[in-house]
Amino acid sequence: MVDLPVDYLDRYPAELSGGQQQRIGVIRALAANQDLILMDEPFGALDPITRESLQDLVKNLQQTLGKTVVFVTHDMDEALKLATKIVVMDGGHIIQTATPTALLQHPATPFVRELIGEERLIQARADVTTVGAIMLKDPVSITPGKSLVEAIKLMRDRRVDTLLVVDDNGYLKGFIDIESLTRQYAKSTAVADIMQKKAFFTFRSLRSCVIRSTAFSSAD
């Protein structure tokens, strides 16, 4: 379970490296089969490479065995990597409890913000893309009877690579994209000939955002 050879069972602790000793420590803690495991800065004295390897090991074991691990650390990168929930404490008081993502996006106090560090906060903002940031405010559409020449011109004029296909009443029927246009241009003439009737919707609620794939029929 901790990637050590079986013959290491006959070795004394002094015959193992620091990382190997920590692996034995982890498996000894798990051998008791407790539901709750406390790990108090277990990797603090290890070199960065060994430390990262053991972090991966603990994360994989936790996910495989389903144990609850209370992991105490002063290393914010370690906390963000391993935790499903982070409790930030200062002077014996809980300052904030949140998932790693929520902590990065919404630090509760200047203390938490300083603990995370501006560089991590900037990187986290770059990784977050909202639906509003990528959705078209004025989606470009075309009707099924239009020609492929007209579709290409519309794409070029509006600087898009996909067109929504709608009927005369504005109801969505499907879409066409530049790949299908390029592939079928020589043997098709109208948008209806290459229209894909499978489209994706985003449904928003207060609790979740679900991406759903819908295939259209002629009766839709």
Layout of secondary structure:
Elements: H1 18-31, E1 36-40, H2 48-65, E2 68-72, H3 76-82, E3 86-90, E4 93-98, H4 100-105, H5 110-116, H6 118-127, H7 131-134, E5 141-142, H8 148-158, E6 162-166, E7 172-177, H9 178-184, H10 191-194, E8 198-204, E9 209-215
Parallel strand pairs: 1-2, 5-6
Antiparallel strand pairs: 3-4, 6-7, 8-9
Give an overview in words.
The chain is of the alpha/beta class. Helices cover 40% and strands 22% of the residues. The protein has ten helices and nine strands. α1 packs parallel to α2. The longest helix is centred in the N-terminal third of the chain and has 18 residues.
Distinctive features:
single chain; CBS-domain; elongated; Rossmann fold; two-stranded parallel ribbon; alpha/beta; 220 residues; 2 domains; 3-stranded mixed sheet
